[in-house]
Amino acid sequence: MTESELIQAALAARVNAYAPYSGFQVGAALLYEDGSVFTGCNVENAAFGSTICAERTALVKAVSEGKREGLILLAVAGSGEEPCWPCGACRQMLFEFAPNLKILAISKNGTYETASLNTLLPHGFGPASL
Ligand code: THU
């Protein structure tokens, strides 16, 4: 799968976002070494703190299906003008499984920027830290 195809998967996942409170829709797509893809959207809640982000939705879907290894690329598509970078909680959750993960942060109009997770979360706390 190409980066462009993964971006399309994130955009498709964004359609399902449940974001009645913020109005900010997000879709995420995770690509694994074996070519498998897991997608997610943000799911908000009337108890605002119970909201889950698109990236963590996708990651939890993957892990709950037994997929722990081989995460190589994440595409995140927000509905704002700026590229949508993962929040701190998502960076931490992703770091557990792929500290060097490549991330594509996509804006409303489809333009995107890239970065590696270890630059977004330097000196991250992970399994080796325990
Ligand atoms: N959100 C995500 O889904 N991913 C991010 O990386 C940033 C924020 C969601 C959470 C909430 O539903 C909305 O965007 C506004 O914060």
Commentary on this structure:
The protein is an alpha+beta fold. 28% of the residues lie in helices and 23% in strands. The chain has one domain: Cytidine Deaminase, domain 2 (3-Layer(aba) Sandwich). The model has no long low-confidence stretch (mean pLDDT 98). Tetrahydrodeoxyuridine binds next to helix 2.
Key attributes of the depicted protein:
Cytidine Deaminase, domain 2, five-stranded mixed β-sheet, globular, 28% helix, 130 residues, binds tetrahydrodeoxyuridine
What's the number of structural domains? 1
CATH topology: Cytidine Deaminase, domain 2
- Helix content class: 25-40%
Distance between the termini: 35 Å
Count of runs of 4 or more consecutive helical residues:
4
Question: Nearest-angstrom radius of gyration?
Answer: 14 Å
What is the H/E order? HEEHEHEEH
Strand line-up across the major sheet: 2-1-3-4-5
Largest sheet: 5 strands, mixed
At the first level of CATH, the class is Alpha Beta
Strand content: 15-25%
Overall morphology: globular
* Mean pLDDT over all positions: 98
Instruction: Report low-confidence residues grouped into runs of 5 or more.
Output: none
CATH superfamily: Cytidine Deaminase, domain 2
Total strands: 5
Question: How is the secondary structure organized here?
Answer:
Blueprint (H helix, E strand, L loop, with lengths): L2 H12 L11 E7 L4 E5 L12 H11 L6 E8 L9 H10 L4 E5 L5 E5 H4 L10
Parallel strand pairs: 3-4
Antiparallel strand pairs: 1-2, 1-3, 4-5
The protein binds tetrahydrodeoxyuridine.
The site of tetrahydrodeoxyuridine has 15 residues, from helix 2.
